[in-house]
Amino acid sequence: MPTRLDRRALLRTTGLSGAGLLLAACAGTPDPAADPAADPAADPAADGGTATPAGDPPSTNEDIAARALEVAGVDAPVGLTPIIAAFELLTGTGRVPFGVLDEQQRPILDGDVTVWVVDQDGALAAGPVTPVFFGEGLGARGVYIAELELPEPGIHDLVVRAETPDGPRAGTGALSVVDPASSTTYPPGTELPVVSTPTVDDQGPLEELCTLEPDCSMHDTDLAEVHGSRPVVLSIATPAYCQTAVCGPVIEVVERVRADLGRDDVVFIHAEVYNDAAVTPAPHTQELGLPSEPWTWVLDADGVVVDRFDGPVVPELLRAAIDQV
After folding, report:
1. Domain count for the chain
2. pLDDT tens readout for residues 34-75
3. Which residue in 307, 314, 295 sits closest to 87, CA to CA?
């Protein structure tokens, strides 16, 4: 049964952001000072640390974060805010996208960063790992990607250490990890359902076929017409109404990769998330049961997911996924 789209779910996952970061929040992003629900201290599954496992004595976020730092062997003042740029991560070797803010809530771009994962039982699950910073095609923005062997399903801690002008600083962020079989949104190896996407010939109930200005060029083909017969790159995103300023860059990145590759055998499709001004989810959004926005899939000629991007899309990684189809 389709999941009701919840934009706050993505907001709670990505957290707040600073100017210039790929994950920079739109004006509609909650301010923790004004919205207690957006304050990590008000939610044990937010950026302060993991939720307390059932049956364990209650622990504060500070206690959980301190335990994670100790387990990772990180001895540095706490001052970083890691921003996990994904709704969910999959068990196994996974790609973890994130940003890092310093004590002044400024993004740390292409810095000296190291990460670890501490599982919800307090054991070291991965690290130390040096993430790769990607900024290609993103202007002054960017995102770190860490390839990590993720633990069992649950809420775990990403421990981040970075060098800053004031010396080393550390911080923790929560990772929501699920088994692929329990994934909310069609992981690699599964077949994406056949849904119809609006085109320039018939945009259906959408008030706007494309909210990017000017419109992108990825609205000529209905997914239902090519699903299972040709490779497809499908992005469901809303540049004008995205609540985390990710959707616009996603469509711009996909459009740029499409133009650069010039592959006539691969169909690129963009579909808006909503029928209207971020109120009513579009039919394809509801049929796919999307829990957040944006999502991008690379499908092979059989309609099977080769790769998916939950949130930001890195040009280099998208090109690598397309090379597999």
Report:
1. 2
2. 333 333 333 333 333 333 444 454 367 788 889 999 999 999
3. 295
